[in-house]
Amino acid sequence: MTVSHPVRVYRSEEPLPREEQLAWKIAEVAADPVEVDAEVTDMVINRIIDNAAVAAASLTRGPIIAARAQALSHPVSTGGAGATVFGLASEEGDAHLTSPEWAAWANGVAVRELDYHDTFLAAEYSHPGDNIPPILAVAQHTAADGRSLVRGIATGYEIQMDLVRAICLHKHKIDHVAHLGPSAAAGIGTLLGLDVATIAQAVAQGLHTTTATRQSRKGEISTWKAHAPAFAGKMAVEAVDRAMRGQTSPSPIYEGEDGVIAWLLDGPDARYDVPLPAAGEPKRAILESYTKEHSAEYQAQAWIDLARKLHREHPEFADPENVARIVLHTSHHTHFVIGSGANDPQKYDPTASRETLDHSIPYIFAVALQDGGWHHVDSYTPERAGRADTVALWRKVTTAEDAEWTRRYHSEDPNEKAFGGRVEIELNSGERVIDEIAVADAHPLGARPFAREQYIAKFRTLAEPVLEAAEIERFLELVQRLPELNAAEVRELGIVAKPGTIDLAGAPKGLF
């Protein structure tokens, strides 16, 4: 059973006991000792595999190189055994271990860089797999076992997704990681078995430190896009540390007269209803999230699948000389955030950054229509983006908001919720072709839903260029025994790159 918690702004003179505050309600869910369902445990394993896959593919990319160098500049803190950094072995006198907040930072960047892991979209959007790096880092540092790790991750997903269902951030230009700071703090609280009062303080601090603007996803998108969730995870680790030391946080952080809702979100007259599991109710939100088959913004997933279908059925569409215009009728979000409705000239710029092209549905649809597929590296190269026939086709693609697709995007019925739309292609011959797609092929309701087999295949595909075959098998064997793992085995839940893949000496120098 789910309980809906009403949330509003309270004037300073109005009493709001801390037990009635949203941060406390979140903490009660986190502290609930309810067991994790077998189905949820299996999906937690899938998402750890998924995160490792996309992290492996990112090990030699610039943001990861920089974040890893920062992390390795910080020794293991005295309160635990330290945490591993993706790509590096924890050998040689633990030279490659770091303090958990810095492991959360480096690994969070690796997971997010390619925009290729899981997603959940409702009132807000999110990548709930971003909870895994900070919770795993703390588990390794504190010698937690696999069962505790599963419990912590289930909480992280539950809290972030429940906040995402109820509270929209993006319409106020607040970045979606503002829901991640509280959820990761709650997940760490579950992992460590902390009491409600301590978790509530950490949740409040996790929110207070992670409310940033969405400029990181606007215009010329920078490398900070990959760092933003890693920063939220790092702040969550530090928030838990402060709370465990008895330090308090702004209160009430959501409902206060000068709090987040009053000044950053819907304002002093705001009303939200946040759904949270009742006491004793299993945390099953992870089962409603979905991963990506393609390395692109989630709203692009279904469009890539539709484009490759059209590529097979109408190869003539690949030639811009045949096409007069292409209009993608879609949801408000797709049109205004990654479509022509954003009014970002960079979305049609062949010299734009990878991060910007990833947030341009006109570019993505044009390339997928020409290539009949999508590749996490090749589809974004300057050479691919600058190809003359691609640029010509790309600039014929626009988006338009369609009220019905917007309604389905926001539907709370998982059987109706949709992230695609209808394409109308007008050829210079006068012929018109119309087709549509509701959800991506890999979606639970799609043509080819992802199961363990597909997660493992994705991991193998992305890991094979950078991991030895024996390392791939070691990791897969270990992670699939997750609930049975002891603390020493949890510490091995990383991936180790082939010799020569990572050049630590060649990393950029900074302050640390």
Keywords:
512 residues; alpha+beta; 9% strand; globular
Q: Estimate what percentage of residues fall within beta strands.
A: 5-15%
Overall strand count: 10
> H/E element string?
EHHHEEHEEHHHHHHEHEHHHHHEHEEHHH
Strand order of the largest sheet: 8-7-9-10
Largest sheet: 4 strands, mixed
**What is the distance, rounded to the nearest whole angstrom, between the alpha carbons of the first and last residues?**
49 Å
Mean pLDDT: 96
How many separate helices? 20
Low-pLDDT residue spans = none
What's the overall geometry? globular
Structural class: alpha+beta
Return Rg in Å. Answer: 22 Å
Determine the fraction of residues in helical runs and give it as a percent range. 40-55%
Family: Belongs to the PrpD family.
Domain MmgE/PrpD C-terminal: 294-482
InterPro entries: MmgE/PrpD_sf, MmgE/PrpD_sf_1, MmgE/PrpD_sf_2, MmgE_PrpD, MmgE_PrpD_C, MmgE_PrpD_N
Protein name: MmgE/PrpD family protein
Characterise this structure.
With 512 residues, the chain is of the alpha+beta class. It has 20 helices and ten strands. A four-stranded mixed sheet has the order 8-7-9-10. β9 (421-427) and β10 (432-437) form a beta hairpin. The model has no long low-confidence stretch (mean pLDDT 96). Residues 294-482 form the MmgE/PrpD C-terminal domain. InterPro entries: MmgE/PrpD_sf (IPR036148), MmgE/PrpD_sf_1 (IPR042183), MmgE/PrpD_sf_2 (IPR042188), MmgE_PrpD (IPR005656), MmgE_PrpD_C (IPR045337), MmgE_PrpD_N (IPR045336). Belongs to the PrpD family. Residues 20-271 form the MmgE/PrpD N-terminal domain.
